[in-house]
Amino acid sequence: MTRVSAGSEFVERAAAVNPAAAAKTVRDPRLDFYRGLAMFIILVAHIPFNAWAGWIPARFGFSDATEIFVFCSGMASAIAFGGAFARRGWLLGTSRVLFRCWQVYWAHIGLFFFTAMMMAALDTYGTFGESYIDSLNLGRFFADPAPQIVGMFTLTYVPNYFDILPMYLVVLAMMPLVMALANVSLWAVAGGCLAVWAAANIGDVHLPAEPWSEREWFFNPFGWQLLFFTGFAFMRGWLPQPPVSKVLIWACAAFLVLSAPIGSWKVFTWVDAAWPVLGDSLRSVWEGLRLFGERTGFDLRDKTDFALLRYVHFLCLAYLAWVIAGVGGRNLLSTGEGLAGRVWQALLAVILKVGQQSLAVFVFSMAIARLLGFVLDQIGRSVGTFALVNLAGFCMIIAVAYIAAWFKSQPWKSKPR
Question: What is the residue extent of each domain of the chain?
Fold first, then answer.
């Protein structure tokens, strides 16, 4: 049986234009576009007390930009690493993945120490009337650094705010096992991923986040791997492309709209204010879901273990985004006419570039977000200052994307003119 990958149309197009290029990786503009959007949303979400964060996807449903990042990372990994397993075998494919894990590990370590240094500098040399070290709950790290440094390097100390990259690293490290299962059957892959997800959501399998408490990693990789490998499976062709169906479109849209009041306190507050009777009914649904989770140990909304409703919500959102983008992303790439078309093309180019350099942009944005929050503390929070700081942050991550792309191109290897 032939399996067609979600990105195969791009390979076919490249082969038709230039057969020599067919063997090279062809980027999917849909993947880069949505991953780029996620990077902007993640920056907004991590600037402390940022009014713009009230309008990110997380405020309107169960899933948020984290799901976009993880799902798209799975798809990108299928392109970047899946081919290595197919061409060079399991051992060299595994080596390729381990090298990426090594890069992500040191990105995590660097992000933590740079951010900790920045908070320490603000507390040491500033007279701002508050502790920026405590704002990230790093007081114990600075009070007793020796065991925390050991914990940081062994990933047994994972403070909140620094928990996405460790989750990503562990999920990446699971890829060789998934590829080994794929050699058995795709049913083995599905069964394995679902079993690990169930262990996280039902069996409470998790990793410890700090030695002095029972707190677990905020993003449990054993739960979130299901979303990562869903994206991976679509791009590898293990899962077929869903049909463009009006029934599916309306079903997904209905789920997103109807679930919003029980997936977001913001939407619930609006509904409760506009229609108190409906608000009372929805309040009982909120309470029912909470009690169900307490009684069964199976929380349907939990973010840490990537609960079921988050998965369904994101799949509905992803399906609509895929339909909107069109075949091969043609709706995104459509130039249009006049000034509006030129503006869209310029904006699209920027978003794609940010999506292509997502690791560098993500690490930078997580570091700079705290500094942008400090700037807001100094200049005050108003409509104008929020716009100034957020747009400045956008400009900075765009600059990082272009700089990272320039360095990756290794221009010093090109022949002089």
Answer: 56-328
Written as six digits, the tokens of 19 are 């057969």
How many helices (H) does the chain have, and how many strands (E)?
A: 20, 0
Q: pTM of whole model > 0.70?
A: yes
Q: What is the DSSP string of 188-232?
A: HHHHHHHHHHHHHHTS----BS-TTS-PBPSS-HHHHHHHHHHHH
Asked if residues 237 and 4 have their Cβ atoms less than 8 Å apart, the reply is: yes
Single-letter code of the amino acid located at 58: A
Q: Which residues pair with 208 in a beta bridge?
A: 216
Integer Cα distance of 157 and 22 in angstroms:
45
* pLDDT tens, per residue, the chain with 417 residues: 334 344 444 433 433 334 333 334 567 899 999 999 999 999 999 999 999 999 999 999 999 999 999 999 999 999 989 888 988 899 999 999 999 999 999 999 999 999 999 999 999 987 777 789 999 999 999 999 999 999 999 999 999 999 999 999 999 999 999 999 999 999 999 999 999 999 999 999 999 999 889 999 999 999 999 999 999 999 999 999 999 999 999 999 999 999 999 999 999 999 999 999 999 999 999 999 888 888 888 889 999 999 999 999 999 999 999 999 998 888 888 767 788 888 999 999 999 999 999 999 999 999 999 999 999 999 999 999 999 999 999 999 999 999 999 999 888 887 776
Read off the DSSP letter of residue 213. S
Q: Which helix (H) or strand (E) holds 379?
A: helix 358-379
User: What is the rounded distance in angstroms from the CA atom of residue 30 to the CA atom of residue 36?
Assistant: 10
Structural contact between residues 69 and 358, judged by C-beta atoms closer than 8 angstroms:
yes
Give 363's contacts (C-beta < 8 A, 6+ positions apart): 107, 110, 111, 165
Is there a contact between 324 and 29 (Cβ–Cβ < 8 Å)? no
Q: In whole angstroms, what is the distance from residue 356 CA to residue 65 CA?
A: 16
Alpha helices in 2-131, H assignment, sequence order: 8-17, 29-46, 65-77, 83-88, 90-125
Q: How far is CA 189 from CA 53, 84, 154, 230, in A?
A: 37, 18, 28, 10
Asked whether 226 and 194 are in contact (CB, 8 A), the reply is yes
Give the number of other CB atoms < 10 A from CB of residue 153: 12
Q: Is 416 exposed, middle or buried (0-12, 13-18, 19+ CB in 10 A)?
A: exposed
